[in-house]
Amino acid sequence: MELRRCYVCGQSKQLTAKFFYTNKVPKYHGFRLECKECTHKYNISQKRKDIVRKYNISQKGRITAAKYIQSVRGRKQRARQAAIERRRYPEKQKARLIIKQEKKMGRLISKPCIICAEIKTEAHHENYYKPMNIIWLCHLHHREVDGQMRGQR
Is the full-model pTM beyond 0.70? Predict the structure, then answer.
């Protein structure tokens, strides 16, 4: 009997339908690279993520999250996370501080969003090592641009 090592858990198992799901790709000898057990665990984790995602965007999920953020425990967790972010990305912190100081001194004036012309805007840095090289975006478009940039990395 031929054995196959599972791509995920690394265990060697018999290459049969008992241990591996079938796959129509000929180079895999008709079976998937991961065993049934690992496939099942992955599917359960994905279903769990989908359930959590759906809950988080539901009204009840948003209300619960808002209550948590306002609680003492939520504020402490948020402060810890912010401290970690500041230590991990000091160049971001420095760029934000420079923009804040420039706005306070009156040398930098915020402009409307370059996409939708919303007046209430945020400074977006394409490169944190060039802190004065910014574009002005509303909150919604800033999040969209940041999401696109994360996807490119």
Answer: no
